[in-house]
């Protein structure tokens, strides 16, 4: 901009406002810091933004819905445009949902936007979470932020369940009945817990108002606060980046927040909102009028919860009913305790503690700002895939009746197949994934050592044939050799030099055993010595794989094993 | 043609061709797919019974026996009434083509006149439920709200909340009801074909059956909220949320992140 041109009216107004705010709040300094903040660029870093933006969509559409929804279980008689329910007795909650859908202008669109946004919210949380998992972005210093994200996932489940139960229809009532059954199955306190939740015998008169408070106040309040903390941590730790030439644990390579990411992320909000609005406008979701007002007696075929709760339904469907045992007149409902408490308990605990477990068995106390390529961590990648496969099998088991009708199969056979698969499938998926990762690492080694195949066969005068390979360029090679080779832990011996038993040896030995499970099978990255050998006389195979690795990797330039990395300051990494 | 030739090696060309091929196949199928039509039932006479007997012996006696008294492979039809014949043959379920978990509906094998003759013959073997009159099954005369209450108490646990169908044990299933004619709905309730229980007129009165027909008649049309996604509930909603929603959004993310540093 030219300094001589007189500022226009708009410019003067903007400058005046900015100056007014800056003098009173010191906003200028904050804007300056944030505007210059560097973010690395990759499409997978936008997955968390889908969750954030669908949550904003949820709040906006949710506020609209609260204007018309009546959270009451008072009985009323419906008179309205939906013929199949005309003159039917129902709760105020159900009747106001019908009014919202059929009589309030734009009401059905808002309901559908809200519900689709909820499904997208949960789906994007899971996708984002597994992006973090597979690339190892949960490693130090980000373990606490992993737990914040994990808590957001659980709160998302709660928000979804309390939300779709609000209209008081038969389908969600079936879900509440299951929740009641799960509460009742808790040993000793079960009955009291159920009476406390429902304000008496199920379904009672209090539940909908209570769910309403949980759904519009408690859970979204917590989610909002934790999203704040989640993003604060992102700013504090700075964003991770994928490995590549020029990127290290000490820098962040990317574009500044302003104007690049303000435009990209801001634009992405409108895309997220647009896709959700498009779905809300064209695809029917949760047509409560089809299910009718809640009545404890009917259950229709194909009664399932929303997708993120479907794994619990699947676990219940897989569990044989005979597991209920009676001890001295007290019933222990293992047929409910196992699928509804132990199965989700195992899955979620594994997910929550994995970062801490991995750090412990790796013996890794360094900060990590460079992401892993999933293939370079075969155990972790296999473990993540097996968790997803277990979840998927449970989801499919929860849809067993629909699989039976759509593919003309026997529901009994499907259920038995899933009962076997839930034990075999995750192990098999783990094994296959780990093998694929190791195979990809071998391919990386092969490429680094030999280069790309060119298809050119050359015959020498002596009669010898060789195939000409094109060597990788420096950037291609760096991506394939930059990572650490992680080996099983080595521990101090059981007894010290004077033959006294060492404290903590047993724990160390256990740690070493788990570490062996994690890292015994591995393909180590090519060392410069191996590379040089391959280039000079092609006899790299005769070299011992990677004993020389640690010292020479540092020579390549990453400083992965240099001492300084433990002490890097946050400022040094900031551009 | 020059433009076409230039675009032929575009990497999107196979996708476009695939979509065109799918469109063509779908269009041809829609144009040539057989459509069923039903004729109005007429009253029976001795002549009809005689012709029905001939049809029966030619087409049904292998399984049901020459005198319709049943064999090891088919039940006795004495006393099942005209309603059962009209339903089983009128929906194409009989004559059955093969053994299976259950006999499924298929294109109807006989004209309505022949079906009436068969029905007249079977009805003559012993008293049983008759084919309902047009008034008994007229959805316009029923109350869909009462029908909704009756349907979800008696039918929804197998046929799904809106009659979209559901699974039964060992490969059997309760079919979708949206394309079934009101007469066949009434007859199914009255005679209880295959796995379905009998809802006789003491259990569900003819008026209540008509209310249920009125309720089913309201289902399966255009959903108020847009595409009904099969009307099978949250599983298909979840599937589409992942496929369409996350699919589009990840596509958009890849697009935004494409010009990377």
TrEMBL record, chain A:
Cross-referenced Gene3D superfamilies: Cytochrome Bc1 Complex, Chain C
Taxon lineage: Bacteria, Bacillati, Actinomycetota, Actinomycetes, Micrococcales
SUPFAM superfamilies assigned: Transmembrane di-heme cytochromes
Organism this protein belongs to: Cellulomonas alba
Pfam assignment, any one: Cytochrom_B_N_2
Cofactors, names only: heme
Regions crossing the membrane: 50-70, 115-134, 146-166, 178-198, 210-236, 257-281, 336-357, 378-396, 416-433
Domain Cytochrome b/b6 C-terminal region profile: 244-439
Subcellular location: Membrane
Membrane topology, from the record: Multi-pass membrane protein
Positions of the Cytochrome b/b6 N-terminal region profile domain: 17-243
EC number: 7.1.1.8
UniProtKB keywords: Electron transport, Heme, Iron, Membrane, Metal-binding, Transmembrane, Transmembrane helix, Transport
UniProt-listed PROSITE patterns: CYTB_CTER (PS51003), CYTB_NTER (PS51002)
Catalysis performed (reactions): a quinol + 2 Fe(III)-[cytochrome c](out) = a quinone + 2 Fe(II)-[cytochrome c](out) + 2 H(+)(out)
Domain of life: Bacteria
Protein name as it appears in the record: Cytochrome bc1 complex cytochrome b subunit
From TrEMBL, chain B:
Record keywords: Cell membrane, Electron transport, Heme, Iron, Membrane, Metal-binding, Repeat, Respiratory chain, Signal, Translocase, Transmembrane, Transmembrane helix, Transport
Annotated Cytochrome c domain residues: 47-126, 142-220
Membrane topology per record: Multi-pass membrane protein
Gene3D superfamilies the UniProt entry points to: Cytochrome c-like domain
Domain of life (superkingdom): Bacteria
PROSITE patterns in the record: CYTC
Pfam families: Cytochrom_C, Cytochrome_CBB3
Compartments where found: Cell membrane
Name this protein carries in UniProt: Cytochrome bc1 complex cytochrome c subunit
Source organism of the structure: Cellulomonas alba
